[in-house]
Design a protein that fits this description.
Elements: H1 10-24, H2 57-65, H3 67-73, E1 81-83, E2 90-95, E3 98-103, E4 107-112, H4 115-122, E5 138-141, E6 145-150, E7 153-158, E8 162-166, H5 168-176, E9 192-195, E10 199-204, E11 207-212, E12 216-220, H6 222-230, E13 246-249, E14 253-258, E15 261-266, E16 270-274, H7 276-284, E17 300-302, E18 305-310, E19 313-318, E20 322-327, H8 330-337, E21 353-355, E22 358-363, E23 366-371, E24 375-379, H9 381-387, E25 402-404, E26 407-411, E27 416-420, E28 425-428, E29 436-441, H10 450-457, E30 462-467, H11 485-490, E31 503-507, H12 510-515, H13 519-536, E32 541-545, H14 556-572, E33 576-577, H15 582-585, H16 600-617
Parallel strand pairs: 29-30, 29-31, 31-32, 32-33
Antiparallel strand pairs: 1-2, 2-3, 3-4, 5-6, 6-7, 7-8, 9-10, 10-11, 11-12, 13-14, 14-15, 15-16, 17-18, 18-19, 19-20, 21-22, 22-23, 23-24, 25-26, 26-27, 27-28
Length: about 625
């Protein structure tokens, strides 16, 4: 945009105008003008001395009505110089103390003599890069600074930094920080371009503003910037900053998000980077406000996994296991004492979880199970699976898993278990031999039952009894997670001893009669259970008892189920004893506590008959 009113250049015109005023007006250039009235839009103009430049239009109106403008500009030293038309019209008039510049887009603005004005005219004034001023010159800023906004940016000056231009998104980001009065201070360089992906940057007294088309402009300063610098800045793993720095975090911390990560700082921990799955996991647990707190170390790669230390624990990640943490406490301490992720247990597969009043955590090679009185102990995966269903039946582990020729042992408060890889079964560790009878049954085995007495009389003095009230081939019981004896046995919810007992006795069916289970369901489940027993005890004798009953009508269904299961056992060629009507035969029909359960007297009466039957069936 050129000025066309005169052929003289602006500097020459300004010099000539100043000389004329000096010759015609008494006093120095700084003396006050004689009282005069200047033309303003829509107002009559009075005549002034011919050698004094006229003040008209918007420029004259601003000068005539604004005391501050008159005080800083003093007297006009040149006539208006205008160019353009319509929305592109603009004029500048020179004064002893600066300029008034007007355009249709910006209105009339004062540009005061000084470094800002010098920088503006050094870039060709309104015809140059900056365009017309959009504000008046602001002076008296911090540390003697001044600034002015123009159509295409702002020029800011301080004695320490000189006059610098800010514009666009970088200027807005500087503004969010509080401009020269904020934490960035004054600009110390102009904007520089040519960064990766079309980015740009500008330096300020206490930091930088960095811009890219993908992320916009954001301040970068202090310890967080220094950590970013060590990653390679925009060329490194984090990329460009994607947010401004967030202040006021817990314990005086701050953080800044980047394209591919976060840098977070606190007075206690310094600035640390968070990336990838560990960063996502940390955020999901509450970040610095969660159990992990601030990171105290950087991400470390070790073999096929990475980990990072935090105030409250450690986060581990691998492609196979994902991200999980161990948080401070007995489980974390025990895990570390075992070598951590590179030790016996391997990487964590879950976080620490509450269980039955204690804590548990799964790792690649087992679980750590912590009880309030027992501490954190190692439990193998198969054993834990069973323990976790009914932990109260086992109590807490009191020793770590150990292995011998029988399998993997775990000593719980209430019993010891053995997992056998060959059979893929969990057993109890109770000792058994050829003189042992193992009983699996319902509440008919309560007290010193007729079955136990009969087995002892038949030569089985050592006995292991699993008596679960309400259970049957089909009927379920809460004591084993709500399932039937068949399901509970298959899922190791009923633990039988490992080894080769001389005799295994099944006494079920009464509860199936009670619930009216169908014949098909009873037979299907009975065969499943018997097959599972044969798999567990391939060398033991398995004896199937029928359902103890009386001969009255109330026990008709019990007698029916007795016949059903003993006939099925016969078809398989297994030893079996029918108990149909035995209570009546033994004279114990009146020795019942309720409709199905005998008292001890009744058991004692039935036991001799059962002992005779078992000896006969087993060839004794």
């Amino acid at each position: 945009m050129g000025f066309t009113k005169t052929a003289m250049g602006p500097v020459r015109r300004w010099l000539l105008g100043s000389m004329a005023v000096a010759l015609l007006v008494p006093g120095t250039l700084g003396a006050a003008l004689p009282t005069q009235t200047f033309a303003v839009p829509d107002a009559a103009s009075t005549t002034v001395q011919a050698s004094t430049p006229a003040l008209t239009g918007a420029i004259g109106h601003l000068y005539n009505t604004n005391a501050w403008a008159r005080s800083v500009l003093l007297r006009p030293t040149g006539a208006e110089e205008c160019s353009g038309s319509g929305s592109n019209a603009g004029c500048v008039q020179r004064f002893a103390g600066g300029d008034i510049a007007w355009s249709a887009r910006t209105g009339a603005r004062v540009v005061v003599n000084g470094p800002v004005r010098t920088s503006w005219w050094g870039a060709d004034g309104p015809a140059g890069f900056h365009g017309y001023p959009a504000t008046d010159t602001a002076s008296g800023l911090r540390n003697g600074g001044s600034k002015q906004s123009f159509e295409r940016g702002t020029i800011t000056y301080s004695p320490a930094t000189g006059a610098q231009r800010t514009g666009g998104s970088i200027h807005l980001a500087w503004g969010r920080s509080g401009f020269e009065g904020g934490f960035l201070g004054y600009p110390v360089t102009g904007e520089s371009t040519g960064l990766r992906d079309g980015g740009a940057w500008q330096a300020f007294e206490r930091g930088f503003v960095v811009w890219s088309p993908a992320t916009g402009a954001h301040p970068s300063m202090g310890a967080i910037r220094e950590r970013w610098r060590r990653t390679g800045m925009e060329e490194g793993e984090l990329g460009y900053p994607a947010t401004d720095e967030a202040l006021g975090l817990k314990s005086g911390g701050s953080s800044q998000e980047y394209q591919r990560g976060t840098i977070i700082w606190s007075p206690a921990t310094g600035a640390k980077a968070l990336t990838g799955a560990i960063r996502s996991y940390w955020s999901s647990t509450g970040g610095q406000n969660g159990a992990l707190g601030y990171p105290v170390g950087e991400e470390v790669r070790q073999n096929n996994f990475v980990y990072q230390l935090f105030q409250g624990g450690t986060v581990y990640w691998s492609a196979a296991t994902g991200a999980h943490s161990t948080t401070h406490g007995d489980v974390h301490n025990r895990y570390n004492s075992l070598g951590g992720a590179a030790g016996q247990l391997g990487l964590p597969l879950t976080d620490k979880l509450p269980r039955a009043g204690g804590l548990v955590q799964q790792f690649a090679n087992g679980w750590l199970v912590w009880g309030p009185a027992t501490g954190a102990r190692i439990v193998g995966h198969p054993t834990y699976k069973v323990w976790s269903i009914t932990p109260g039946e086992f109590g807490w582990p009191v020793k770590d898993t150990w292995t011998d020729g029988r399998g993997a042992h775990v000593a719980f408060q209430k019993l010891e278990t053995i997992w056998n890889d060959a059979t893929e079964e969990l057993y109890s560790a109770e000792a058994v031999d050829a003189s042992t009878a193992v009983f699996l049954g319902d509440s008919q085995l309560d007290m010193d039952s007729w079955g136990e007495q009969g087995a002892r009389a038949a030569g089985y003095p050592r006995q292991v009894v699993r008596s679960i009230g309400g259970i049957g081939y089909v009927s379920g019981s809460p004591a084993v997670g709500g399932g039937s004896a068949t399901d509970a046995l298959a899922q190791d919810r009923i633990l039988l001893p490992q080894g080769n007992p001389g005799l295994v006795v099944v006494t079920l069916g009464g509860n199936d009669a009670r619930i009216g289970a169908t014949d098909a369901a009873i037979l299907s489940q009975a065969n499943r259970l018997w097959d599972e027993l044969r798999r567990k005890y391939p060398r033991s004798t398995i004896l199937i008892n029928g359902v103890l009953s009386r001969y009255d009508a109330s026990h008709a269904q019990r007698r029916w189920v007795d016949g059903l299961v003993t006939r099925e056992a016969a078809l398989r060629g297994w030893p079996r004893i029918s108990m149909s009507g035995t209570a009546t035969i033994a004279g114990a029909a009146g020795d019942y506590l309720d409709g199905a359960h005998m008292n001890q007297t009744g058991h004692n009466k039935v036991a001799p008959l059962y002992a005779s039957a078992i000896k006969y069936v087993l060839g004794k």
